[in-house]
Write a structure and sequence with these properties.
It is a multi-pass membrane protein. The chain has 912 residues and is of the alpha/beta class. The protein is built from 35 helices and 17 strands.
C-alpha cells in the first residue's frame, strides 16, 4: 500500500499541523519513511555542477539503504573551488540533517579542536568495527512491535489487521487521536512511551500532529514494524532527539530514561534519572562536547554484550549437545529411547507408585471381603447387591478415615524423614496423598450413603413378609418406615456426617480456599484460609459421630464385629498426641521479637530469638501463632535464617485476613517516638518489647528442600515469596563456606552480615558438633518476581552471594517480569544504563545489589542446557516453590534433560 505524500490535500478534515522544518527545502515524494527520501536526495546531488563534487558512502543490505557520509572530493576541497565547497556542503548537510542526522561541517578552527578530532577518530573506528563484525545483522534489540505486543500472530500484515481493527474502534471522524496511539498499536500499558514514538514519527514528516488518518497510521506502522536494525535505531534516536537537530543532549537522555522507567513501572529509577543520564553521557561523550550523535548510540547498543558479560555466569550452551548428550541433537519426540524413558520414569516415581498401588490394593481387598461376606448373609436375599455395595464402601471408608490423619501428623513425618523410611516413602507428597485419600472418602460416602438411601432402604420397606422375617430381629420384628430409618441413631449420625464433610470438603477446594469465588456479604466469610481452617476442625465432630454410627450400625450385633474403633484408634492416638505435643512445645518455644520490618511488596519480616533447644535444617518450615490475632490459628512459614544463625527469621506475605491483622498488630502496637514504616522504636533505637505481641512457634517441620545435601548441584527456583525456603539454604551454604575458609586460613576473619535490614546486625554462631562434609558443591538460584521492591527482602544475602559467585559456589539470577523483555525498545536504554552502572559501580540499578537483574522471564530450556553442560555426570536437585504452572514445565524439563544428557535432574516441589 502506498501512503499519501506529505503534501497531500487535508482539507477534508481538521487537525493541528505545524511545520517544524525551519528553512529546510525538502522535495516531497510519493513514498513515506526513509526509503522515500533517498531519490530526492540523489536528484539533488545530480544537479550538474562540475566544480562541486561529493563523495557519498552508502551501506546497503537486503531491506534498506543507509547513507553513511557525504563529503567533498579532493577536487572540491582544492583551493580552486574551496569557497564553493565551504558554502555548498553545509547547505546540503542542513537540507537533509533532519533525516541523515549529519552535523554541520566543522569550520577550519573546529577541525583543529582536539576534542572534535578525538571524536572523529572514534567515529571512524566505530564504522570500521561495524563493517568488520556485521553485528547489526545479529542484533535483535530495539523492537517496537512484536507478536506479544499486538496480541496477534503471524507476519506484519497479520498484525496490521489487528491494529486496523483497533483503529476503527478508536478513531473519531476517521482520525486517531495522539493519546490513543498507544492503545491502537498494543502499548496500552506504556502510553507515554507510545506518544514519544508518535511524536518522533511526526518529526520525521516535519509535522506536529494531534490526529492521523488510517493511511498515515499505516505509514507509521510500516516504520515501527521495520525489521531493519538501522531503521529502528533511527526511530529510537528520533525519540530522544526531541528538537530534531541530530544531537542528543543530557536533558534529552534524562527524558527518555524517565519515559522508559515509567513504561516499566520502575519509580525508583525515576528518582535517579540525572545520575543515570550522566553515566550515559560520560560513556558516550568522553570529549565532553555536551551531546552525542547517532553513531555513538549505535556503538553503545552494538557493544552491549561487552558490558553485560560480567553478569552471565552460565555460558551459552554452544556445543552442549556434543559434549553432554547421549543421542542426536535436539529433542525429537519420535526418536526418543522409550526404554530409557520408561526406566527413568520408574526411577523417579517408584516410591509414589508402590504406595498408591498398596493403598488401592488394600481398599479393593477390603471392599471385596465385605462384599462377599454380605453376599452370603440372609440380608442379601432382602436387599440384594445394594447392601453388599454399601457395606463394601463402608469398609473402605473406615480405612480412609483412619489414613487421612497420618499425612498431617507433621512431627511424625519429620522424624520419619530422617530414618531409612525416607528411602522408600515419598514424604514430600504427604499433602497430595492427603488429598487423594479425601477423594477416596468422597467416593466411599457416595457409594455407601447413596446405596442405603436410594436402594436398600426402599427394598427393605417393600420386602414381602416371608423375606422380611430373615432380618426382622434387626428391626424389632416390625417393618420400619423410611422416616424411622432416617431419624434413628444410625440415620441421624450418618446424615450429620455427610453434611459436615460436604461443608469441610467444599471449603477446602482451591477456589474457596484461595478466595477465587466471589460471594456477597456475609457469605464472603465462607471463602479464604480462615474458612478452610475452621471448617476442617469440624472433623472432630465427624469422628465422634463416626464412632457412634459404627457402634449402632444395622445387621451387626457382636462388639468384635463393629470394627470402626479398631481402624481409628491408632491414627487418632497419634494425631491427638501430636496436638498435645504441639501445645506444650509452643508454650516452651515462645519467641521474643528482635526486629520487625515492613518491606516492599507487602511483606512482613520477623526476626526473633531462637528458642532454647530449637534445632532445624535449612529448607524446613515452622508454624506461628499470634494470640493477639487469633488464639487458635497456626500458619506455616518457611525459615529464612540459617541453622548456624543465633536468631530465627521468617518473611510473611500479607495476602489474607490473618496476615493483614498480624501486620497491623505489629506495626501499630505500643507508643513510641518514631515510626519509619517498621516496628516501633524508642529514641535509642531499641524495640519496645512491651508494645509487641507474643508469638508462639511450633516446629520445625520437614520439607522437600531440607534434603538438598543429597545432591551434587542445586537448582533453586522461587517465584515471589516462594524464594523464602531457599534463602535459608543460601545462608547455610555461605556459613559452611565461611567455616571452610576459616579452617583453611585461621588468620582470616570472615565477616557475616544479616539480610537487608539496616537497623541491626546479627552474628552467626556455629555448632560445635562436627558435621560430615556436604555433598553439595554449587548452587544456581533463580528468583522470578513481578515487583522490583521484592529484592529489598534479601539484599544482604544477595551481596554475599555475589561475592561468593566469584568462587563458583553460588550463582544468583534475579528476573523481573514486570519489565519488558530484553530487546524491547521500552527497556533497551534501561538495559544499557544497568550494564554501565554495574560495570562502573558494581551495583544493579533495580535491586540495589551486586546481582544483576534480568528483564522478563527466564528461558528455562537454556537454563537447563547450560547447567547440564557445566555439570556433566552430576546429580542436580531441582527445588521449586511457587505457582503450579511453572512446576509442570520444570518437571518436564527435568525429565527430558535427564534422558538426553549424562546429568540427572531430580525435581521437587514445596508443599505446605
Amino acid at each position: 500500500m502506498r501512503t499519501p505524500s506529505v503534501g497531500s490535500d487535508r482539507r477534508s478534515y481538521r487537525r493541528s499541523s505545524d511545520s517544524i522544518a525551519g528553512d529546510y527545502d525538502v522535495e516531497t515524494s510519493t513514498g513515506g519513511g526513509v526509503g522515500s527520501m533517498l531519490p530526492a536526495f540523489l536528484r539533488d546531488l545530480s544537479v550538474p555542477n562540475h566544480r562541486n563534487l561529493y563523495e557519498v558512502m552508502l551501506e546497503m543490505d537486503e531491506d534498506s539503504i543507509v547513507v553513511r557520509s557525504v563529503t567533498p572530493t579532493a577536487a572540491s576541497a582544492s583551493g580552486r573551488s574551496s569557497d564553493h565547497s565551504r558554502s555548498s556542503s553545509p547547505t546540503i548537510r542542513r537540507k537533509f540533517a533532519w533525516w541523515l542526522r549529519l552535523p554541520p561541517s566543522p569550520s577550519p578552527s573546529v577541525q583543529e579542536d582536539p576534542a572534535m578530532m578525538a571524536r572523529e577518530a572514534r567515529k571512524r573506528q566505530a564504522r570500521l568495527e561495524r563493517m568488520r563484525s556485521g553485528a547489526q545483522r545479529a542484533l535483535k534489540g530495539l523492537r517496537f512491535i512484536s507478536n506479544s505486543t499486538v496480541c496477534g500472530g503471524g507476519e506484519s500484515d497479520g498484525l496490521w489487521t489487528t491494529v486496523e481493527s483497533r483503529f476503527r474502534s478508536l478513531a473519531k471522524d476517521g482520525l486517531l487521536s495522539r493519546d490513543d496511539f498507544g492503545d491502537c498499536i498494543g502499548m496500552e500499558d506504556s502510553k507515554e512511551f507510545a506518544t514519544g514514538v508518535f511524536d518522533a514519527l511526526c518529526r520525521r514528516r516535519r509535522q506536529k500532529l494531534e490526529r492521523i488518518n488510517r493511511d498515515e497510521l499505516y505509514d507509521f506502522w510500516l516504520q515501527i514494524s521495520n525489521q531493519s536494525f538501522d531503521a529502528r535505531l533511527q526511530i529510537f534516536f528520533d525519540m530522544v532527539d526531541t528538537n530534531a537537530d541530530g544531537r542528543i543532549t543530557r536533558k534529552e537522555v534524562q527524558e527518555l530514561i524517565t519515559l522508559s522507567a515509567s513504561a516499566n513501572k520502575l519509580a525508583k529509577l525515576e528518582e535517579q534519572v540525572e545520575e543515570y543520564a550522566s553515566l550515559i553521557m560520560e560513556e558516550l561523550d568522553p570529549e565532553n562536547l555536551g551531546y552525542i550523535e547517532l553513531w555513538q548510540l549505535e556503538a553503545l547498543l552494538l557493544s552491549r554484550d561487552i558490558y553485560m558479560n560480567y553478569s552471565r555466569p552460565l555460558a551459552t550452551p554452544v556445543g552442549w549437545q556434543s559434549q553432554n548428550n547421549s543421542g542426536g541433537g535436539g529433542f525429537p519426540r519420535k526418536k526418543r529411547n522409550l526404554v530409557r524413558r520408561a526406566a527413568y520414569y520408574l526411577h523417579e516415581n517408584w516410591r509414589k507408585g508402590w504406595v498408591v498401588a498398596l493403598w488401592v490394593t488394600v481398599m479393593a481387598a477390603l471392599f471385596a471381603w465385605k462384599f462377599v461376606q454380605y453376599r452370603r448373609s440372609d440380608a442379601f436375599r432382602v436387599m440384594g447387591y445394594c447392601l453388599t455395595t454399601a457395606k463394601g464402601a463402608a469398609e473402605t471408608l473406615k480405612l480412609n478415615m483412619a489414613l487421612v490423619l497420618l499425612p498431617v501428623c507433621r512431627n511424625t513425618l519429620t522424624w520419619l524423614r530422617s530414618t531409612r523410611a525416607g528411602l522408600f516413602v515419598p514424604f514430600d507428597d504427604n499433602i497430595n496423598f492427603h488429598k487423594m485419600i479425601a477423594v477416596g472418602i468422597v467416593a466411599g460416602v457416595a457409594l455407601h450413603a447413596g446405596n442405603h438411601l436410594a436402594c436398600d432402604f426402599p427394598r427393605l420397606l417393600r420386602a414381602p413378609p416371608e423375606k422380611f422375617r430373615l432380618v426382622a430381629n434387626d428391626f424389632g420384628g416390625v417393618t420400619p418406615t423410611y422416616g424411622g430409618l432416617l431419624t434413628g441413631i444410625e440415620g441421624l449420625t450418618g446424615i450429620a456426617m455427610v453434611v459436615l464433610m460436604a461443608v469441610s470438603f467444599t471449603l477446602a477446594t482451591k477456589r474457596f480456599r484461595k478466595s477465587l469465588v466471589r460471594l456477597p456479604s456475609p457469605l464472603n466469610r465462607l471463602t479464604g484460609f480462615n474458612a478452610f481452617w475452621y471448617s476442617h476442625h469440624l472433623f472432630v465432630v465427624v469422628y465422634a459421630l463416626l464412632l457412634v454410627h459404627g457402634y449402632f450400625m444395622f445387621l451387626v450385633h457382636n462388639w468384635y464385629e463393629k470394627t470402626t474403633w479398631m481402624y481409628l484408634c491408632f491414627p487418632l492416638l497419634v494425631y491427638m498426641g501430636e496436638r498435645i505435643l504441639r501445645t506444650f512445645r509452643s508454650e516452651a518455644y515462645s519467641a521474643r521479637i528482635l526486629k520487625v520490618a515492613v518491606l516492599p511488596g507487602s511483606v512482613l519480616s520477623l526476626v526473633m530469638t531462637k528458642p532454647h533447644g530449637f534445632r532445624y535444617k535449612s529448607g524446613q518450615y515452622i508454624f506461628i501463632k499470634c494470640p493477639a490475632v487469633s488464639p487458635f490459628e497456626w500458619h506455616p512459614f518457611s525459615i529464612t535464617s540459617a541453622p548456624g544463625d543465633d536468631h530465627l527469621s521468617v518473611h510473611i506475605r500479607t495476602v489474607g485476613d490473618w496476615t493483614e491483622e498480624l501486620r497491623r498488630v505489629f506495626t501499630e502496637a505500643g507508643n513510641s517516638s518514631s515510626n519509619i514504616g517498621r516496628a516501633k522504636f524508642d529514641n535509642l533505637g531499641r524495640i519496645n518489647q512491651k508494645s509487641l505481641p507474643r508469638l508462639l512457634v511450633d516446629g520445625p517441620y520437614g520439607a522437600a528442600a531440607q534434603d538438598y545435601t543429597n545432591y551434587d548441584v542445586l537448582l533453586l527456583v522461587g517465584l515471589g515469596i516462594g524464594a523464602t525456603p531457599f534463602i535459608s539454604i543460601l545462608r547455610d551454604l555461605l556459613n559452611n563456606r565461611t567455616k571452610a575458609d576459616e579452617q583453611n586460613d585461621s588468620t582470616t576473619d570472615m565477616s557475616k552480615s544479616d539480610d537487608s535490614f539496616n537497623s541491626f546486625s546479627f552474628g552467626s554462631t556455629t555448632s560445635s558438633s562436627k558435621k560430615r562434609p556436604q555433598r553439595t558443591t554449587s548452587a544456581h538460584f533463580y528468583w522470578v518476581t513481578r515487583e522490583p521492591g521484592s529484592f529489598e527482602w534479601f539484599k544482604g544475602v544477595m551481596d554475599e552471594v555475589a561475592e561468593m559467585d566469584q568462587k563458583g559456589i553460588i550463582e544468583m539470577h534475579n528476573y523481573l517480569t514486570s519489565v519488558y523483555e530484553e530487546g524491547d525498545a521500552r527497556s533497551t536504554l534501561l538495559l544499557m544504563v544497568q550494564a554501565l552502572n554495574h560495570a562502573k559501580n558494581g551495583v544493579d540499578i533495580v535491586s540495589g545489589t551486586r546481582v544483576r537483574t534480568h528483564f522478563a522471564r527466564p528461558n528455562w530450556n537454556d537454563v537447563f542446557s547450560g547447567i547440564a553442560s557445566k555439570h556433566p555426570q552430576a546429580t542436580i536437585g531441582v527445588f521449586y516453590c511457587g505457582m503450579p504452572v511453572l512446576a509442570k514445565e520444570l518437571k518436564r524439563l527435568s525429565h527430558e534433560f535427564s534422558q538426553r544428557t549424562t546429568t540427572r535432574f531430580h525435581f521437587h516441589k514445596e508443599h505446605f
